[in-house]
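Notes taken during the Thursday session

The instructor put the following on the board and asked us to keep it in front of us for the whole hour. The protein is ABC transporter permease. We were told not to look anything up and to reason only from what is written here. First, the residues (260 in total):
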Amino acid sequence: MINQLRADLFTQRHSTGFIVCLLAACGAAAAYLYLQHQLALGGLNAAAANGVQGLSDVMVINLLGSLLIGLIVSRPFETKSVHDALLASSRGSFVASKTVVAALAVFLLGVPYGIAALVGRATGLEVAPAVPTTFALLAESGAEPDAAGVGRIIAVSVVAAILYAARLAVCIPLAIVVKRPIVVMAAGFVWAFVADLLVGAAAKWEALEAITRLTPYAPDHLPLPDSSGGELVGTSIVAVVFIALMGLVAWLLLRRADIK
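Then, after some discussion, the predicted structure tokens were revealed:
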């Protein structure tokens, strides 16, 4: 698995798709911080204010993250390079490596938003969140941080990025089945919002609500500026376990699949 993982990491470091998505996330995070500042100052009209939401992390990471997972997992099936990979390692190693790299790719998309939140707080920039996501609330809350405050912003940002990776992990087994990056991107982007609707509906039944709390889609797992250390650790554990579970599902699907 180690060699497979090294090969996948090397491929992504030189992947045009990954580089473009990461640069797009950086540009979107910077523009989102600036536009939130303009919202706070009243420098945007109502129509423009609605457009700001399109640059929020919930939109950009869900869209680009789904695309990256599709590219990482599905592309080898399109290019037929999956045959070479499976000759060099087992199907389990192949899926495990893709799972780790896909989760890492989505995590990295969240880093620019964490940096933007840190810059916003460090400079005392006045912002008005267009969408009340973790990164937007971090940029808005409180005065300029001290050393402990910087550490908290970094910790919450890291957990938020891990949570995004977990929420999109359902795209990993999906990519094994459909083998089409564009289909994975569309399905993953839609699922990111449908999942919230399903979790909201499940809250009406106690048994279903208890089950959703074991997934990264539960509202209780959303990292907030005032989340305790225990809550951040609990969210991280749920997210990592869910990613591993999706990797297991992907392996079960690939285990007996015919690869043409």
